[in-house]
Amino acid sequence: VGLTLFRNARIHTPVDPGRPAAGSAQGRTVSWEKGTLLCGDGRIVGVGEEAAVLGALDAAARRGLAEVDCGGRCMIPGLVDPHTHLCFRAPREREFLARLGGADYLTILRSGGGILSSVESVRACPEEELFAATRERALSALRNGTTTIEIKSGYGLALEPELKQLRVIRRVGRETPLTVVPTCMPAHAVAPEYAGRGEEYVDLVASVMVPRAAAEGLARYCDVFCERGVFSVPQARRILEAARAAGLGCRMHADELHDTGAALLAAELRVASADHLLAASDAGLAAMAAAGVVAVLLPVTAFSMGKPYARARVMVEAGLPVAVATDCNPGSSCVESMGFAFGLSVVQMGLSVDEALTACTLNAAYALGLGSTRGSITPGRAADLLLLDGETPGILAFRTGISAVAEVYKDGVRVWRASEGGASDPACPPRGAAGTGAALEAL
Ligand SMILES: [Zn+2]
Predict the structure, then answer these.
(1) pTM metric for this prediction
(2) How many Å apart are CA 293 and CA 69, to the nearest integer?
(3) What's the confidence (pLDDT) of residue 438?
């Protein structure tokens, strides 16, 4: 096995407590000012002071080392984005402008905008074209430091177009360096054909669409938009129970606009994550904390919509493990940069840099069921690493809006470097199904 030695790096990583990091553990990190990292076969072999890391090797292994001089740059784990709607045809840019001009959601919906316009365009979009658009966004996320990403369906809202989205999402995982976690979300909105017949649509989702996505091996999780006027708590329960019976993990869009009791359901079902939570009650948050459900916060959406941010400090203090995601989607938050989400987490939501680092790496990986293989710089884990143009992870907040990501390593292989190729040239060799670290998890 060829070994690679990264020397002269300021290494900074969350400490993994063996479960999502909550409370004071959210801010627990370890760092080495003159750190060294050894990796082989896509995994981290050793990390620490150079003498200690090299001391564990025999003379022959030392002679065969490839070396990377990190030049004193900060090294952190690759960023993990646990909530995106990246699989769409085109962003709804004009709708954003209309909203800035004061148009409300119903006005936008009446003029043919809103989620249903994305549904129409995804349904009509040839699979190849949908793949090209999704791949382009995924590579942009990669250039901004994301090495693992969750992508949801939810713009098909009928069996075939939902499966088409999930096939596209699987292909993005196979043909880019990213680890992609696919989520089936036909319960994103009631399909237009079922307007006024929500219960019938829930029947279709629970008895046909979700089981079929699971049977075809196209999804790992199922998500439901549980919100007043969309899917009720009893409907969400029904869909998620069907998903679990089909072998899928569960996650929820919970209490984004109104407190409907979705956070309580998330706790009761012990879903992997409950996301948004802007309107969640204290009782809902306490129940989630007791059940160990990860709270995924989406500050880029709040930024884009000009809305208040989630109560991140209250959640950390209540003992909830907090993760952060981009929510990248064609309507309300069309920015696929986890670095930007990191910056907003610190500057706007009041997380410390260390808490934000855990939120954007370790806890996000746990929210996707990957906490034991990715999300921290720990021997045995995948060597998903970033080199930042800065001395600490705080550079991501200090330079919010500008990518501080200098180099991206996926499973020990450099897949992007800022100094080569422009922003439009990702120079990302596909990892392929048999990529170096792919054996860590069968996705
Ligand atoms: Zn969402």
Answers:
(1) 0.94
(2) 40
(3) 41
d(CA 334, CA 434): 31
Compute the distance from residue 282 Cα to the ligand 1 centre, in Å.
Answer: 22
**215 burial level (CB within 10 Å; 0-12, 13-18, 19+):** exposed
Reduce the DSSP state of residue 182 to 3 states and report it: strand
pLDDT score of 440 more than 60: no
Ion ligand 1, residue ranges at CB < 5 A: 327
Of all residues in the chain, the percent with pLDDT exceeding 70 is: 94
Radius of gyration of the chain (CA): 21
Average pLDDT (393-416) is 95
Distance of alpha carbon 443 from alpha carbon 432, whole angstroms:
12
In angstroms, how far is CA 365 from the centroid of its own chain?
Answer: 8
Measured in Å, residue 374 CA sits from the centre of ligand 1 at: 23
Q: What pLDDT, on a 0 to 100 scale, did the predictor assign at position 436?
A: 39
CA 52–ligand 1 middle distance (angstroms): 44
Cβ pair 346, 390 in contact under 8 A? no
CA of 240 to the centre of ligand 1 (A): 16
Task: Please tell me whether residue 203 adopts helix, strand or coil conformation.
Answer: helix
**Span 113-121, average pLDDT:** 92
Ligand 1 centroid from CA 272, angstroms: 15
Report strand pairing: 221-226 vs 179-187: parallel
Q: How far out from the chain centre does Cα 367 lie?
A: 9
Q: What pLDDT, on a 0 to 100 scale, did the predictor assign at position 194?
A: 96
Nearest to 166 by CA among 121, 220, 120: 220
Residue 84 Cα, ligand 1 centroid: separation in angstroms?
Answer: 6
Burial class (CB in 10 A: 0-12, 13-18, 19+), 402: middle
Q: How far apart are CA 313 and CA 321, in angstroms?
A: 11
Strand partners, 180: 149
